[in-house]
Amino acid sequence: MKPDLFEAPDYYNLDDLLTEEHKMIRDAARAWVKRDVSPIIEEAAQEAKFPKSIIPGLASIGAFGPYIPEEYGGAGLDQISYGLIMQEIERGDSGVRSTASVQSSLVMYPIWKYGSEEHRKKFLPKLASGEFMGSFGLTEPDHGSNPSGMITSFKDAGDGEHIILNGAKLWISNSPFCDVAVVWAKNEEGRIHGVIVERGMEGFTTPETHNKWSLRASATGELIFQDVKIPKSNILPGKSGLGAPLGCLDSARFGIAWGAIGAAMDCYDTALRYAKERIQFGKPIAAFQLQQKKLAEMITEITKAQLLAWRLGVLREEGKATSAQISMAKRNNVDMAIKIAREARQILGGMGITGEYSIMRHMMNLESVITYEGTHDIHLLITGLDITGENAFK
Ligand SMILES: Cc1cc2nc3c(=O)[nH]c(=O)nc-3n(C[C@H](O)[C@H](O)[C@H](O)COP(=O)(O)OP(=O)(O)OC[C@H]3O[C@@H](n4cnc5c(N)ncnc54)[C@H](O)[C@@H]3O)c2cc1C
Fold it and tell me: What are the residue boundaries of the Acyl-CoA dehydrogenase/oxidase C-terminal domain, all occurrences included (predicted)?
């Protein structure tokens, strides 16, 4: 792979909207990605292996629980800092960002928000340091966009202390190596609860899903529960019902809205540099109107997405961002990124399909990002419901 020469586009001087602390956190994450991710990520993706060696580095830049309070081992940062960290990681690779998103928003967040003080103390510091890795089990083989239909369930073990969990979750990021899984399952009354399942519990297995063409540097798998006996105290007491996992998804989708900008910036920056250097018909291809149209539209869309993410960050920090606003940003920014990746790939001609450049990897990764955490279509329906009051899901 070519050396990482990334220079971040900032066409509207958006840095002026950031504090010195934001810039410091962003720049530290950027430098870490250049130093520790870019040199190894292409090979990891080609070999379809999550590079575990980067776990301590992810922890060191605050990627595990950026906004979780410091008393629990988190970085205690604000929402814009969280977004900027996700942006920088996904500039390197969406799979690496996925690992960080799951750990932070889908595992640490529910333990912090819905867990007991004992849960927080037991799990959060180890998740923040990367000593423990977590996964989040919501999707099932027959229930993806409609998780409320889930069949994974638990019943009372009858000994006063345990529950028995049965079912299966599919498409679970980090599952093959997770130490803990936050699993969403129905109780005997059909109400959804979060349950902390720990590796080593009998009947709990995590087979890996192979042959992915996307997010190859992120490990994906199943979570299978066959009569798993779990202490009742592992049930998250703070919130139940579908709103509980959806609250986690709000946080993760917010991070994705920022992360996708990183992937788009990397594609744009690569294509711009290539277009200036590549000579055809006696001049740089950047001099041809058709290539300029592509590049000019890319920077326009990136700038719009940056503004959307920044404003969403301010709203979220103020506690005012709605789930529908988060949906809009996730949908828009991932769609923007995937379109830019496709256009950027064309600017590189044949070179664009090789692992010498990051574009094709970003493009394939974004095919997952546009589907997980609510598909492109589902987020449109969320906006539709929000503005019309009419539910078009069913
Ligand atoms: C690499 C990867 C990692 C993932 N990681 C996780 C994870 O860590 N944890 C987890 O729980 N899940 C995870 N997921 C699962 C992901 O969230 C689901 O794939 C996603 O929610 C879509 O579900 P589905 O694949 O079953 O598609 P389906 O729900 O079957 O949807 C198929 C198509 O139908 C459309 N559709 C569905 N319902 C409607 C409707 N009402 N109206 C119009 N169109 C509709 C969808 O938009 C989509 O285009 C991951 C997925 C991938 C690919």
Answer: 240-382
